[in-house]
């Protein structure tokens, strides 16, 4: 079962998790934010790394590398159609989406206040911490304000395929997330078999990669970060696989060969 699918399923079943939390979302900028000691210390460490003179991709690579080995935690966010949304900030465990949320927000921030504001803007449409405003789908990052990244999938490969999707609508007519409307959206992906050396050569360190889902109602099943290393390109991701269960670097070609295709979002 895909990791994003699992996350959606857990939310739909109203299971909630996560232990480091902030105030319930009743305003655009929650006050009284509390962060556990381990997360607080790591946040300061990561903010100090940001510095100057680094490109966006270099920042994403540097910041994301500091999460390698961080345990995977399923369903880290708190909130549903029936439970008030809370802003979760917890670096002790991450799922594939919260990992990207944190890295993207950190790449834009030089202090704690900026990080909290940027995390809210990255995770929620319109900067309002609310379950209905949460960016539940990977492509929300390129379609929903504030836009965190640009979808460059079609430009990366002439083999890219565009299919119409009804996000959040199950094949049987139900919904993955009660209380969230169905969104009609064209999803462009590159079939796995077409991700060759030419395609990989056009990717940049720091590109956000989604594993295309061929299931109705979903855009991707997993997300991570493309990183070019001296040993070859890797897919940096918070993996729930039993062999990992943590943030790891997986050989990019090996990962792509295991999924129907990929979507590529480039951070702005």
Give a brief description.
This protein is α+β, with helices and mostly antiparallel strands and 268 residues long.
Task: Explain what the structure shows.
The chain is of the alpha+beta class and 268 residues long. The chain has 2 domains: 5-133, Putative xylanase like domain (Putative xylanase fold); 148-267, putative xylanase like domain (putative xylanase like fold, Roll). Helices cover 28% and strands 21% of the residues. It has 9 helices and 8 strands. The chain has helices at 3-12, 37-49, 56-65, 96-107, 112-123, 140-143, 153-156, 197-202, 252-256; strands at 149-151, 161-167, 183-191, 208-212, 220-229, 232-239, 246-251, 261-267. Strands 1, 2, 3, 4, 5, 6, 7 and 8 form an 8-stranded antiparallel beta sheet that branches. Strand 4 (208-212) and strand 5 (220-229) form a beta hairpin. Helix 3 (56-65) packs across helix 4. The longest helix has 13 residues, at 37-49. It is globular, with a radius of gyration of 17 Å. The two termini are 31 Å apart. Residues 9-29 have low confidence and may be disordered.
């Amino acid at each position: 079962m895909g990791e994003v699918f699992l996350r959606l399923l857990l939310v739909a079943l109203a299971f909630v998790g996560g232990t480091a939390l902030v105030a319930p979302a009743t305003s655009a900028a929650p006050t009284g934010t509390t962060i556990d000691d381990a997360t607080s210390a790591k946040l300061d460490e990561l903010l100090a790394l940001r510095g100057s003179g680094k490109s966006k991709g270099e920042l994403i690579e540097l910041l994301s590398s500091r999460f390698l080995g961080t345990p995977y935690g399923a369903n880290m966010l708190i909130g549903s159609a029936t439970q008030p949304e809370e802003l979760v900030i917890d670096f002790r465990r991450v799922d594939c989406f919260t990992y990207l949320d944190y890295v993207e927000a950190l790449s834009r921030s030089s202090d704690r206040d900026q990080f909290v504001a940027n995390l809210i803007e990255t995770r929620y449409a319109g900067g309002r911490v609310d379950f209905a405003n949460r960016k539940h789908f990977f492509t929300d990052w390129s379609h929903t304000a504030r836009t965190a990244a640009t979808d460059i999938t079609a430009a990366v490969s002439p083999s890219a395929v565009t299919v119409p999707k009804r996000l959040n609508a199950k094949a049987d007519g139900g919904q993955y997330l009660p209380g969230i409307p169905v969104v009609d959206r064209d999803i462009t992906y590159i079939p796995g078999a077409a991700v060759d050396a030419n395609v990989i050569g056009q990717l940049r360190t720091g590109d956000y990669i989604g594993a295309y889902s061929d299931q109705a109602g979903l855009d991707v099943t997993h997300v991570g970060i493309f990183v070019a290393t001296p040993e070859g390109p890797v897919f940096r991701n918070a993996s729930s696989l039993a062999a990992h269960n943590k943030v790891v670097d997986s050989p990019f070609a090996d990962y792509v060969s295991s999924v129907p295709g990929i979507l590529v979002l480039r951070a702005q």
